[in-house]
Specification:
27% of the residues lie in helices and 18% in strands. The chain has 208 residues and is α+β, with helices and mostly antiparallel strands. Helix 2 crosses helix 3.
């Protein structure tokens, strides 16, 4: 096939770094994933699969079957990202685990909601309850001073507008900290937002 001078110039320009012509595509290579244990990689992959599936944030109380109860996956709250990721990755049912511990040690859990007994439809979907449960499992860790101290699969909790939020640390890199997988109002997303709000807790459970 004959290659004209113009064709040669176009090829050279496409290969160059300083100019992109129509029809030439330049993509920066994706940064390598952060080092993660195999279980942490499974957990973050399970959370990532919720993106595009869970499209709405809906905090309405919903009676759930027990065990393995869930609201329709098109909706949920921040805790549902964690609950679904552990179910999908490992078959670990936080609904049943939290309920069992609350039945055994109800006084150890917050009384914010005025309940006098555990409720398996909602207890595992509340951030303060998950924080207590994770702490009682020995999963609480010191909060790093900056974004470099986090590991994929870590669970974070944050203080937002007088409430609490929870999400999962991704194995993908952000500007100064790993990305996070969470639902803060518009469905499950992966975003560069770990340090956007005051961090109130860090936990690592069943990923080593």
């Amino acid at each position: 096939m004959k290659v004209t001078m113009l064709d040669r110039r176009s090829l050279l320009l496409c290969a160059g770094a300083s100019l992109v012509l129509p029809g030439c595509t330049r993509q920066r290579p994706s940064p390598p994933p952060l080092p993660a244990t195999p279980r942490a990689a499974r957990l973050t992959a399970a959370a990532r699969r919720q993106i595009g599936i869970t499209l709405h944030y809906d905090a309405a109380y919903t009676p759930l079957p027990f065990p393995n109860g869930d609201v329709p996956r098109v909706k949920g709250v921040c805790t549902d990202v964690i609950v679904r990721a552990y179910r999908d990755a490992f078959g670990a049912d936080l609904q049943a685990l939290v309920h069992a511990d609350m039945r055994a040690a109800f006084a150890a859990y917050p009384r914010i909601w005025g309940l006098d007994r555990p409720d398996p439809s909602i207890d595992h979907r509340r951030v303060p309850n998950l924080r207590v449960w994770l702490t009682r499992r020995g999963a609480a860790l010191p909060v790093p001073r900056d974004g470099s101290g986090w590991r994929p699969g870590d669970i974070f909790t944050s203080l937002i507008n007088g409430g609490t939020h929870i999400g999962l640390v991704s194995d993908r890199r952000g500007q100064s900290a790993p990305l996070i997988i969470h639902n803060i109002g518009a469905g499950t997303r992966e975003e560069d937002a770990l340090t956007a709000w005051p961090i109130s807790g860090r936990y690592r459970w069943s990923i080593d």
